[in-house]
Predict the structure.
Amino acid sequence: MVSIASVGRPTPVVRSGHVQLSISLDESNKSTLQAQIFDQIRAMILNGQLRGDDPLPTTRELSAQLGVSRNTAVLAYERLIAEGYIRTKPYVGTFVSPDLPDTAFLSSASEKTAPAAPPPPEDNAFGGAPRELRTHRLADPDRRRLAADFWVGRPDARSFPLKAWSQHIKARLKSAGARLTSYNDPAGLLELRQAIAKHLAPARGVVCDADQIIIVGGCQDGFNLVGRLLVTPGSTAVVESPCYQGAAFVLESLGAKLHPVPIDRDGLDVTKLPQVEGAVAYVTPSHQYPVGVTLSLQRRIELLAWATQYDAYIMEDDYDSDFRFVGSPLTALKGLDRNERVIYLGTFSKCMGPGLRLGYVVAPRRLVESFRRMKMLMNNGQSWLEQAAMADFMASGEFGRHLRRIRQLYRERRDALLTALQKHFGECEIYGEQAGMHLVWKLPERFPSAAEVEAKGLAAGVGVCSLATGSALRFDQNDGGDRLLMLGFVALTEKEIEDGIARLATALHS
Ligand SMILES: Cc1ncc(COP(=O)(O)O)c(C=O)c1O
């Protein structure tokens, strides 16, 4: 082992114009001598032993001090220069670079000698503390072994159009050309955006151009996109009380102050909207999440008027609107939006599957360019292959047929659930059965709370969800939400539904 200068003297010693560095070379080490010199000087710079503009020995001095060839020292210095750690000043010498790369990556060993971290900037919305991120629940692997799981929000895996999907994927792969090896439009594949625009007009009453559509990785990505554009630290985000956690937590993570507005049988109580400028309001008008009620027409109009008056934007999450079992399909809030205050979010997670991670945002015209740019900053757009397959699946008419098929199937399953509940528990107070993939049962007084019913159900092999398990966020502990039980019905057969409810009844009655 070759060692120069005394160990434990961290700062370089300058003697009569010469600089000595504490470098130890180990010939038995697998790294070359040149790499060891590079690593040790780099470490001294990163841990603060060497600071910007500190002088370094010349390569001649270094090679003499270390007893290595001049070429070894030159090569080590060349790499340090190439990576920006040091620089040479012609006729003056070699110095530590004043603008250092990587300074954030201090090694734990060197942290002891590193200068104290600078205080967080004062305009940090989180007061300099690390962000405490709350996240929603996606699935519970422990529930796989249950005899029947009425978990919410999950489509029927057996109904996924696998054959058609694989044909479209294969066909697109054959003709992909350079599209898999290039970046594509961050706003999404034009054919898919056109197919969505064509679908939305008759299905949801949303009339828009393909240009207004941005393809996203499901609603969750859409919440992020909208939030990153419109939320500023400390701004107001109106949410329904209770609401979907996934959206509320994104807005909160961006520094918004959540402003819960209660709901009743007609949806959001618009008389309680805040009188503040520039808020973002997250709403689920067609099938309120979690309770399932529908926002009345009168309130829709009032909500839009509020947004216009207070220069607010409304983020409409239309997550499960493909399934309406009573009456004709409702027009989305976006369909009534004359002043372009609504940002519409749709997803393929419910009608196809969340594994695809495909959804879309319909942006007001004046925000389209900002949305495109933000999507580019976020991830340069979604996977080309899945978008292309989805576009073909829609254009061929298969999507429409698939929707009609599963809508009928889900209606039968919903009916089976309503029948089973009535058979085993008598008259039940139900919300949200007119649409969507789950309904809500307000438990009668004779039963314990929803959380206890959930626990008893699980013990009997039946999964049901209290609001907390069903990814709902409550703000008011006296809102009666502890008596609400969520039951997803689309992923179980009619027999599984009947057997599951029978088991639950036995567990609750015993
Ligand atoms: C109300 C609501 N919105 C959005 C989503 C998220 O959907 P995506 O998979 O499109 O991100 C869910 C998921 O369950 C949901 O329940």
